[in-house]
Amino acid sequence: MDNIIYLRMKKNVELNKMQRLYLKDIAYISAPSALKSKLENTFIYNITEKDQNIIIIDSFIVIDHLNEQYSGLEFQLIGPAQSIIRIKKVKKTPSILLASIVWILLFIGTAMTIMNFHYDVSMQEVQQKLHLLLTGEENEYPLWIQIPYSFGLGIGMLLFFNHWFTKRFNEEPSPLEVEIYNYQQDLDQYVSYYENRLNDTKPFH
């Protein structure tokens, strides 16, 4: 059984620059220690400018390539059928002025959304009636209800999104993180289909 090698493709790989890809960059390898180092350093693909920022490495082509170089070994695939290689672009230092403008626009947009929602559901009238039921007196601005409600609204949003800047309140993902994950999964499927359909898997070189 020493001639059986198990491979598990890495689903997503992020690189900072164009470079030569080796098997260890795109797959996890289960093999005897005597062979593992040699297999890990097997050349797979050379990323160039024409590849742009996304490359799809299909496991079938990888195994076919390995069979040519290691005829005495049997390669078995476990897990994903391909690796998506992304070349990260160099991020520029964000402008403080631009970040401030975006923050102000988001703040105003969020405030308008909350105010319009409260107007649509007649929140002030509800709070006035609640004050009347609890105290027996009419009050146009029941601040003892409105102020705690305002704080509770903000705290509730923090708990809902499970973040305070970079700090998490618990290990559970927030609904936003789940939606981002689902979006990333759909994006990966589209990229895999689109790249393979256009290029029919790029050859090794």
Report what the structure shows.
The protein has 205 residues and is an alpha/beta fold. It has three domains: 4-90, Sandwich (eubacterium ventriosum atcc fold); 92-118; 119-192, no CATH class. Helices cover 51% and strands 20% of the residues. It is built from seven helices and ten strands. A three-stranded mixed beta sheet has the order 4-1-7. The longest helix is centred in the middle third of the chain and has 25 residues, at 96-120. The chain is elongated.
Q: What low-confidence regions span 5 or more consecutive residues with pLDDT below 50?
A: none
* Gap from first CA to last CA: 31 Å
Structural class: alpha/beta
CATH class category name of the largest domain: Mainly Beta
- Biggest beta sheet attributes: 3 strands, mixed
Order of helical and strand elements: EEEHEHEEHEEHHHEEH
Helix content: 40-55%
CATH architecture of the largest domain: Sandwich
What's the arrangement of strands in the largest beta sheet? 4-1-7
C-alpha Rg (nearest Å)? 28 Å
Task: Tally the beta strands.
Answer: 10
Q: Summarize model confidence as the mean pLDDT.
A: 85
Q: Per the principal axes of the C-alpha atoms, what is the gross shape?
A: elongated
Can you count the helices? 7
Percent of sequence in beta strands:
15-25%
**CATH H level, superfamily name of the largest domain:** eubacterium ventriosum atcc domain
CATH topology type of the largest domain: eubacterium ventriosum atcc fold
